[in-house]
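Below is a filled-in request sheet from our internal design queue. Each sheet records the structural input a requester submitted and the sequence that came back. We keep these sheets so that new team members can see what a complete request looks like end to end.

REQUESTER: design group, bay 2
PRIORITY: normal
MODE: inverse folding
CHAIN LENGTH: 310
BACKBONE (tokenized):
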């Protein structure tokens, strides 16, 4: 596909940001630097960052833990819940890659709760385990907030790719039917979401998810049964709208895993349901630039995160 000119990209970005919160200005987005070379998978896999301040297990499985990154100072600090992507599989990285974002956020005075979880190729992963891990990770964060200088009134969930699906699901989890094994027991609510190349609409994007990630509906949403005929009723973020959240969908202009049209479609659906949502398209960026604090795209990603905490 031919690459748009700089002026066309500027117009595209201005259109994408129309109606966004004032903290995300169209003129700053249009003037954002374009990566000289879009990041590829190998560059993403090489991402890392500082060691966490402390690590907490929220279950007995090896992948059931979260890392807390605290900024210097007394706090209390706003909190970013980070959920990595990787096509819901162990093959494409995990919690290590998001440490680079956690380190960058700490330098801005933002604490991070970096979540690892069971994926579809791990025992207990997929449906319902992966979603139950999200609930347990949030419950553990809430339990630790009294011990550490964390301000959970200023909280944003940031997820990349598959993690985007999971943080968008977090925003609607209290709308999950009480009969579902995914219904949360805790009370911590996620009202602000930044989805980086997220694949949240499991129903409408099933074909894309299968082509991009080789994941099937059964792996991510389970199989239908007499008591659960619609497998999307408790797994699909789009089915849990409206939920009172504000979502910023950030996607690279050159993202082939979750193309810009996915962000626009979900934002439109969320707004139609009554929630606040906007799409931000990163000029010249790939699926991996979205999550790299070293990328030329990072200032726009950071702007989305910080505006969500205000």
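RETURNED SEQUENCE:
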């Amino acid at each position: 596909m031919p690459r748009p000119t700089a002026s066309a990209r500027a117009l595209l970005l201005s259109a994408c940001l129309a109606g966004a919160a004032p903290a995300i200005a169209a003129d700053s987005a249009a003037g954002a630097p374009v990566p000289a070379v879009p990041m590829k998978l190998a560059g993403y896999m090489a991402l890392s960052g500082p060691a966490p301040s402390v690590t907490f297990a929220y279950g007995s499985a090896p992948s059931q833990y979260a890392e807390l990154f605290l900024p210097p100072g007394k706090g209390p600090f706003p909190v970013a819940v980070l959920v990595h992507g990787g096509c819901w599989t162990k093959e494409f990285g995990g919690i290590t890659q998001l440490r680079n974002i956690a380190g960058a956020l700490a330098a801005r005075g933002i604490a991070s709760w970096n979540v690892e979880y069971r994926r579809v190729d791990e025992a207990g992963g997929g449906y319902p385990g992966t979603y139950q891990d999200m609930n347990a990770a949030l419950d553990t964060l809430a339990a630790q907030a009294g011990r550490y200088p964390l301000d959970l009134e200023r909280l944003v969930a940031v997820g990349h790719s598959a993690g985007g699906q999971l943080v968008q699901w977090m925003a609607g989890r209290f709308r999950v039917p009480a009969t579902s094994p995914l219904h949360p027991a805790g009370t911590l609510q996620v009202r602000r979401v930044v989805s980086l190349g997220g694949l949240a609409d499991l129903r409408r994007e099933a074909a894309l998810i299968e082509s991009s990630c080789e994941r099937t509906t059964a792996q991510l949403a389970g199989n239908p049964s007499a008591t659960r005929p619609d497998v999307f009723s408790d797994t699909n973020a789009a089915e849990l709208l409206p939920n009172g959240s504000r979502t910023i969908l950030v996607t690279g202009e050159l993202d082939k895993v979750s193309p810009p049209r996915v962000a626009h479609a979900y934002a439109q659906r969320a707004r139609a349901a009554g929630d606040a949502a906007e799409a931000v398209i990163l000029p010249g960026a790939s699926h991996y630039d979205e999550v790299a604090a070293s990328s030329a795209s990072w200032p726009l990603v950071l702007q989305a995160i910080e505006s969500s905490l205000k």
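SHEET NOTES:
- The longest helix spans residues 129-144.
- Strands lie at 54-57, 65-69, 77-83, 111-115, 150-160, 192-196, 246-252, 276-282.
FILED BY: M.R.
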